Every structure is written in C-alpha cells, then in structure tokens.
Amino acid sequence: IGDTQRFPIFAKAGRLVLPFGISTGSPWADVLSVDNPLTIEAFEFRNTAVGIGLGFPTPSLTPATPPVVVPPVRPLVVNPLVSALGKGLGFRPPPARPKPPATLALTPSPPPINAAVYVYSGSDFKGGTSLARHIGATLGFQTKSNCGRPYSQLSAASLCPRSFDIDVSYNSSIFDSIFLGAEYQGFLPQIGAVRGLSSSLKSSFGPISLVAEWNGALGRARFVDDNSNAVSIKPSAWQVSLGYQFDWNPWVESIGGQGSFAALGYSESRDLAGVTQLINGSATRVGFIPKRRLLLTAGEWVLDGLRLTAEYSHSWDYSVAQGGTGKSANGIFTLLTYVW
Hints:
about 45% strand; about 10% helix; 4 helices; twelve-stranded antiparallel β-sheet
C-alpha cells in the first residue's frame, strides 16, 4: 500500500519473500541462471509478515518522459537458426503485417534511499510459530547515471548507463529461512534465535551486470545432533555473478530481459556440511548444501515473452573431514520461461 514516487511511507502485509539478500521470489528476475546461487538456496525467507517502510526523498514532480523509438534487441542464435532451417526445408511463412515502431518511455527513477521494518511469523522453537518475536529490517541505496550524455550518444564501450543498488538487511532468526527452518527443524529448540545479516550489490555498466552478495549468521548455533555430536556452526554464503547482454542498446533496462545473454556465477557456503538426524530410526545427513557452485549460463528470448535458457553447473561438496563426501557433481539444465 503506497506509492513512494508521491509519498514516502508504504506498507506491506501478507505471505512475503522477506528482504534478505537479492532474492525477491521471482526466479527469472533475481538471477540469470537456472540453478540458484548458494546464497538464495540457503537464505531465502518466505513468511507471513507485516511491515512499514520509507522511500525518500520523494522525487520532484516532472513531466513524463516522452516515448522514444528504440532499435529492438535481436535474438542472435536460436531464433535465426530455426528461421534459417525452416527456409532451407522450404517453409515460406505468410507475409507478416507491418508493426508500428515500438516506443519506450524510460521508467522514472525511484527514491534513492529505502528503509523498512517488519515483523513476521517465525518458529517459536517449540514446534509452533510466533509473530511478535521475529523482526527484520532493511536499508538500501540506489542510483542510476547516463554519464552526463544523451542516451543516443552512449555505446557499449562507454559502459553507460550505470546503475547501483546496495542493500543491507537484518533478521532476528536466520534459521527461519526456507532451507534452514526445514532442515534443522528438529534442532530448533536447542538452537533458539540466531541473528542474521545480509549485504548485496546489484549493478550494471552498459551491457554488463554485476551481482555480489553475502548472507550469514551473526552468532553461532550450538546443539547436539542425533549422533551425539556437539555441533557449533555459523552458517553463511557468498556469491558473485556477471552477465552480458548481446545486441545491447542504452535503453535496455535489465540485462537478460530481452535478446540473447550469457552469465557466469560462482558461490560458496560455510558451515553447511550438514548434521546427523535419525529419520525412521536411520541416521541421515540433513541440512547440507554444496561447498562451492559454478554456473555457466546462456539464454535467449526466442519469441516475445518466451525465454530458452541452457546451463552447465558444477558443484563441490564439503570434504570428508568437514562432514561431507569430498565429491563433486556436474549438471546440465534447460529452462523454458513464458512471461505474460
């Protein structure tokens, strides 16, 4: 409820993805990869929450930016290849109706500073949930610049326009994340509340995007697992990823949002090798994610609203001495996304 372009205060309530790290719950908007970086895999929150926030200073009222005609970003691989193959096999599509030139009005810049405080429904450490005991907060700054030149004079070599979005978030109980809450549920009465902090940067430089993030606990979780091992862990994870937009032009507002793109991502976790839990009388390793993950991704919007993505993933488990298997795994993934 609210519009920070006109008034600084807004409110949110419902089943929300809490502001912690880069995750917003939108799998195709947060990252360009098919598989998640380890930061999102371990520390994404989805809870019933109520929050109030501010976006300031409120932008001055200005006339709307007149729409401009911009060159379309072309798909460079799959779409041309299929078209050429069809023509080679004798397919002749009917004449297409001429489309009017597409126009674009630049999105108004939001207030540069945003802050919010919320309460959410988290574990009461006794098998139930509690609302008032769980608090989160976030503070961010964002800015965008075209380097003092008109968009028509910008090129890929100038690395403009440039954007920066920096956020720091706090959570009073990091074991309420989707992953940690489910995997360590049987140990939560021993663990109790462990505070968490996240810091993230999302930026772009012309056709290049950069994402960097760290999420982690501020204190140690101490408990005894079902194998009578005394456990003391301080879970955390970090990631960095680069994206590149092919056939880019200065009016592209999000890297990977059209045409063809490629991305490289690397993430690491700490103290998430897992613990032993008895499940149906059998000792089972729970609460683990890879130690490291490398993602190589390529994608293309083959049609309007239809994206095809292919990815190679390589993950390394924790060493045997750290409680893992010491093994690694390869994966190849494809994803077809339709947006309407």
